[in-house]
Design brief:
This protein is an alpha+beta fold. It has a domain at about 35-105 and about 110-135: Immunoglobulin-like (Sandwich). Helices cover about 20% and strands about 35% of the residues. It has helices spanning about 5-25, 30-35; strands at about 35-45, 50, 55-60, 65-70, 75-80, 90, 90-100, 120-125, 130, 135. The strands form 2 sheets. Strands 1, 2, 5, 6, 9 and 10 form a 6-stranded mixed sheet that branches. Strands 4-3-7-8 form a 4-stranded antiparallel sheet, with no helix packed on it. A hairpin with a 6-residue loop joins strand 3 (about 55-60) and strand 4 (about 65-70). The longest helix is centred in the N-terminal third of the chain and has 20 residues, at about 5-25.
Length: about 140
């Protein structure tokens, strides 16, 4: 190859090298952006009946951002640390429940939650997949 390589080819090679470095640096952005997370799923039930529209809060006891999820019609939930990241911080958590009224279109609906929703739970999130089923007391 001649020593006076085409200037556009040289510029394209340099641009490609810079782009590759930027992309490689971005590969670790998840670990730099979030603390270690464990995936968390589960089911909320009362007297073995699934509970829909229950907001599940996992608050790390060591401090940090809480993770939340809302149960579907079958009582199942998946926790989200952020909109883009599923899971909860690895470690001990105090877990609380709240009834979600966002999907309720009945203006006369009661705003009283079942007594079991006032109870606090404790779970330890580990790296990888975690399943925490929560059974609450009925009224």
């Amino acid at each position: 190859m001649p020593t006076n390589a085409h200037p556009l080819r040289s510029a394209a090679l340099r641009l490609s090298a810079v782009a590759a470095l930027l992309l490689a640096g971005g590969c670790n952005s998840r670990t730099a952006k979030y603390p270690p997370l464990g995936e968390v799923t589960g089911k909320v039930a009362s007297s073995d009946q699934p509970m829909a529209n229950i907001v599940v809060f996992f608050q790390p006891t060591a401090g940090g951002r809480a993770s939340t999820g809302t149960t579907d019609a079958s009582g199942r939930y998946t926790l989200h640390y952020t909109d883009a990241a599923r899971g909860a911080i690895v470690g001990e958590h105090v877990v609380s429940l709240s009834e979600s009224f966002m999907n309720n279109t009945d203006p006369n609906a009661s705003l009283q939650s079942p007594q079991g929703l006032k109870k606090k739970f404790s779970f330890t999130v580990k790296p990888g997949r975690n399943t925490f089923d929560i059974e609450i007391a009925g009224d």
